[in-house]
Amino acid sequence: MTQPIGLWPLLRPQRYQLLGALLLQIVSAVGGVVPYLAVVELGRVLLAPHAPDRHRVWLIVAAGAAGLLVRLVAGALASAVAHAADSSLQLSLRRLLARHLTDVPMSWFSRQSAGGLNQVVQNDVNDLHTLVAHTPGELTSAVVVPGLALVYLGAVDWRMTLVALVPVLVGLVLRFALATERRKRDEREVDAAMGRIAVAAVEFVEGIAVVKTFGGAGRAHRRFVEAADDFAERFLRWVGSAAWLASLATLVLSPMVVLLVVLAGGATMIGAGALAPADLLPFLLLSLALTAPVAALAHGLDNVNAARRAAGRIGAVLAEPPAPRPAAPRVPDGHLIELRDVGFTYDGEHPVLRHLDLVIPPGSKVALVGPSGAGKSTIAQLLLGFLTPTTGSVRLGGVDLRDIEPSVLYRRVAFVPQDVRLLRTSVADNIALASSSAGRDEVVAAARAAGVDAHLSSLPRGYDSVVGEDAGLSGGEAQRVSVARALLLDAPVLVLDEATAFADPVTEARTRAAIDRAGEGRTRVVIAHRLATIRDADLVLVLSDGRIAERGTFDELVAADGLLAAMWRAQREDATGAAAAPTRGSLL
Ligand code: ADP
Fold first, then answer.
1. Which terminus of the chain has a lower count of CB atoms within 10 Å, N or C?
2. Distance (Å) from CA 492 to ligand 1 centroid
3. Among the atoms of ligand 1, which is closest to the Cα of residue 371?
4. Structure pTM?
5. Is the model's pLDDT at 416 over the cut of 50?
């Protein structure tokens, strides 16, 4: 893997906005110190032995008020600019991630969990929000305010300034003791445990149907509970190790302790005649401005660290190399599909497919059958270019799929998956997903051909109904929407993963008819689970353990009395048995 991208390169596009926000924040912080200085000056003028100069008093009051105004206006502007930078950063990062995720090889996704990706795209991008929108303000005030106070106090009396600095320095030492390596490691562990909760939660929700059916009393969500317990334990350890240090730091930096130190030091110096009583006033007022930012500083640095870790995870995803693009792309000549001596392994060790040779003439229907795990989906993914063969080659129209631009390939090879995931947008947009220029008439025509027009028209907002909101679709309807999508794309090759279970025979018959219509005149490669659907196939391939065990037409293979014949008998018996005992569900 290439070097992950760090935090600063991610923030780079927003650097001018961030710089602007920083400058405004500095102005705001300076403005914020002025009222304090004004109060101090006012005290000195009013407490002076001679009568106060009215003009000077009003000037000080005006300066204090102006400072307050500058603080408010510049602070509001800084916040607005920082939030604008933040929203454009989030938008551009999510776009960048979305674009990148479409470019990484499909095989990468099979190694990721949905929860892990959600952590990156959602939570980690959100973590950058605090950094961009709030931390610059916190950190600037934490530096500028005590800095200015220190300069002013230093000018009044440097010895007293040192006294006022004692709690600050002790507080800083304690705070930095909080940020030791060990704690950082604990912190990373807490983060990782949080990520595991996200993964377990997504898995739990995705598998809720299975959990409900087979879950037993709490067993099924054990992974989630364990992840939550693990997080709680690590979090408590992390918080626990910090608790006494944090309390001590809070105590040292509390106004009470700070004032006590300044008063004790000041009284001693006044007693010794080393300080004018009026000069104690600025220390009493401004010493608090020295200590308050220490907590803000620590908090701000925590945010920077959290953002760095989030950026690390985002950067790792962005650094994942995209699927290789063909160096010299070629356009397929026709739609003949050839698999030449194809071998494939997912893990580099266990071959899933071995020495596979197959030629699929344009317009033919080829069925892939075989027991679960035989390699049917792997072949489909190879045909779609989602996977590249470990050995041998897959060709379309005489060109190796690796030499075909993805956009060219996907206009020729369409996929109708079994587990159709529709996007949370209108059903019309879902159908026109790959054919953005298609008009409504064409969308409706495709839906009609796929046998789903009647249902879509009956939805509350018709074709504008949004999936997941007011467009309720059964599994069969969703698959027909996906057939309509493939029809609209008008790809000459269809790869179909037949659904294993349909809600009812009517849905099944409709979906099957839609798929048959969609397939007319096209090459169809069907992963078939029900043998009744492939009796008309031009070629049936029976896969077993990564090899083609039998090949021929359906009737030929039944007559040969091999694997297919046995599967066919089993399914027919099952169907008869199910008919005889209607309460028993068929597994296939
Ligand atoms: P089928 O579609 O016939 O059920 P598959 O092509 O899905 O079979 O799987 C073939 C073999 O490859 C199985 O042993 C399966 O466990 C393995 N396999 C499938 N997908 C992956 C993956 N993403 N990573 C590792 N092994 C996989």
1. N
2. 27
3. 3
4. 0.66
5. yes
